[in-house]
């Protein structure tokens, strides 16, 4: 990873206070300073450990209400330098301070806002995190215990990361932000200040979750159970869709944990959320299941000029698999087994066959 720009500023606000102010302290930090590199690595690592990220995009439909969006576009359209980077930081701070003063953020507190512009592999990123501090103990030169104030990166309650490269490529999902773990309850003031929305097309979220489910099975050598596990995941999505409810990653994680063999439980249990929430899949903590995508995994529709079939995917198998519908790839034909009495009578009547 290559750190390009780093800035630290402070927002001052106490719990139940209706006023948030921007401190005059802080500014650009020398990226060659070893401590700057240590802070950079620690913050990126802390963000990467979170398994409750919400993926989304900018609220372009109302971009005029979010000055940070236009400021960000201006920043990446030019050749970024320290001056333009600090200007972007100022815009973000102003929006964060205004958002902190909203009634919905009454219980929120201020902290240190860390801005990082960096590259990793072939991607450029902008990471903005709000962290607090904590009291620690250190020893002075005489080994007397003394109080020190430490940045508490483990309590990274608010942060947002924008993949600048995928944004320029026109991707549907190019940013992520931290929300709480409670269902349906995402802390909005931080993400709203930056113009972030959790609007990722439900089709993409649904298909990415199913792909992540299949890849997770392969990654943890669960191929023998893969069909059953993915079927359970899709069934869960179907139930949530039918009940007009969102799908939640922790719920899907429980499905995987229930299928996990004892010898793999210690290594893999409780890890699916982080797997699916990673950069590779970007499945949000909460999303709406997509009907057509679910049906594509649960239903098979075959149509010819003179007939059509519509059946559950679980009914399909290869020849001699004892499935209700068997496909023979050698003769390119299908066989339908275990017909009901009613269907048998219908076929006989159609062919005018006597018993």
TrEMBL record:
InterPro entries noted in UniProt: Nucleoid_associated_NdpA
Record keyword Amino-acid biosynthesis present: no
Pfam families: NA37 (PF04245)
Chief subcellular location: cytoplasm
Key words, A-Z: Cytoplasm
Cellular location(s): Cytoplasm, Nucleoid
Recorded GO MF terms: double-stranded DNA binding; single-stranded RNA binding
Coiled coil: none
Family membership noted in the UniProt record: Belongs to the YejK family.
Protein's recorded name: Nucleoid-associated protein
GO cellular component terms given for this protein: bacterial nucleoid
